[in-house]
Write a structure and sequence with these properties.
By secondary structure, the chain is mainly α. 82% of the residues lie in helices and 0% in strands. The chain is built from 12 helices and no strands. The chain starts with 11 loop residues before the first helix and ends with a helix. The mean pLDDT is 80.
């Protein structure tokens, strides 16, 4: 009979190794011919008793370890788990907060974009209202021109000057109003397009985020810009139509007047008749031309931040003066226009210089000032592009838009 003797917890490893060797010895076939079953059972019994003694020797340490584990499980572990959960939760909250912040920034850009367009709403609505009224009276204007043409075909020397003055007034209105409307529509269209382009530039860093979350970059200016472009197209087309009709009617009146003058038998009677019939019309035309010369000589409005002049309106005034030069070139058949045309005569050269030289020079110089001041480069390049292509009116409109933009630097 063999068994290892257990003495203390210190030799537990040695005891375990000896017990395993004894067990292997008994289990090996043919190696123990002199060993009986009884001795084997007694040896196994003594080994079990040794194992119990070893277990008892470690009982105190095991119980202490179990006690400490229980204490940790009951007191410290919940706090540890709570802290870990809190940390995990903070990460989630931080992630969610970052997303909310990004969405908030995008919404802020959209709101700023919307606010800019809302600030333009009164101007836009006024233009649309004016356009609706303007478009609605085209038939009446055409009827008025037709009536003038019909009346001129049967008019006398006494009544022709009044018809001519009426035609000049219609021509001025139909020339100035569509140009002013197109000017306003172009300027507003550029401002809206600039507001949209600015938004697209500012929101560009968020494109990937917006795409990933199904967010769409809005174009809140598109419909309004299309309406304004339609207004411009109509105004330009109507200006061309009415200008052609006015030119034809004016030419017909001149031919009628020349024919009547030629038919007059007595020069003295012709002169008296002409003077008496043209005096009132001449005075009205002179008053209007004096007013236009006075107006064209006034300084245009000025920006407050950079002190730059708005020039689009002034360009129209000078162009209006130059448009009358052809009419005033031949006053033989329209003597009643003579005094008014004499008032305009010194202004032609000034207006031509202003249109051909002064305005382009001012635009180029002030574009440089605005570039130094930090005005949006795209606006300034648009002005320069129109100047290079000799599109002075478009350049002046774009310039006015850039000047307005400089007010919010």
């Amino acid at each position: 009979m063999m068994w290892p003797e257990f003495t203390s917890a210190a030799n537990s490893v040695t005891w375990t190794e000896q017990a395993q060797r004894i067990s292997a010895f008994y289990q090996e076939p043919g190696s123990t011919p002199d060993v009986t079953m009884k001795s084997y059972e007694l040896s196994m019994e003594r080994i079990r008793h040794g194992a119990w003694e070893m277990r008892d020797a470690y009982r105190g340490e095991t119980q202490e370890l179990a006690k400490r584990n229980g204490s940790i499980r009951n007191t410290q572990l919940p706090a540890i788990l709570k802290q870990r959960a809190l940390e995990d939760g903070r990460e989630v909250q931080a992630w969610a907060a970052a997303k909310r912040e990004e969405i908030s920034e995008i919404q802020g850009l959209i709101d700023a974009y919307r606010t800019k367009l809302l600030e333009m709403t009164p101007e836009y609505e006024a233009l649309v209202t004016q356009f609706v009224e303007y478009r609605g009276n085209e038939e009446a204007v055409l009827e008025q021109l037709q009536s003038l043409a019909q009346n001129a075909s049967t008019a006398s020397l006494e009544t022709l000057p009044h018809l001519q003055l009426s035609l000049v007034q219609v021509s001025r209105t139909e020339s100035l109003l569509p140009q002013q409307m197109a000017l306003g529509a172009r300027a507003l269209s550029l401002k809206m397009a600039h507001a949209h382009d600015t938004f697209m530039t500012e929101v560009n860093p968020y494109v990937a985020f917006m795409t990933a979350h199904g967010m769409v970059r809005p174009n809140m200016a598109d419909t309004s810009v299309q309406v304004l472009e339609s207004i411009i197209a109509y105004a330009d087309a109507r200006y061309a139509r009415t200008s052609e009709i006015v030119s034809k009617v004016m030419a017909g009146i001149r031919r009628r007047q020349e024919a009547l003058v030629a038919q007059s038998a007595e020069d003295e009677a012709r002169e008296v008749l002409t003077e008496s019939s043209t005096l009132e019309a001449s005075q009205k035309f002179l008053t209007e031309m004096n007013a236009r010369v006075t107006q064209v000589g006034r300084l245009p409005p000025r920006s407050t931040r950079l002190g730059l002049y708005y020039l689009a309106g002034k360009l129209l005034e000078h162009e209006g003066i130059l448009q009358l030069q052809g009419t005033c070139a031949n006053t033989v058949s329209t003597p009643w226009m003579g005094t008014g045309c004499n008032v305009l005569a010194p202004q032609y050269a000034k207006s031509r210089t202003y249109v051909m030289s002064t305005i382009p020079t001012i635009l180029r110089m002030n574009v440089g000032k605005m570039r130094t001041a930090g005005v949006n480069e795209a606006l300034l390049q648009e002005v320069e592009g129109h100047l290079t292509a000799n599109r002075l009116r478009a350049a002046t409109i774009a310039y006015d838009v850039a000047v307005r933009a400089s007010e919010v630097l």
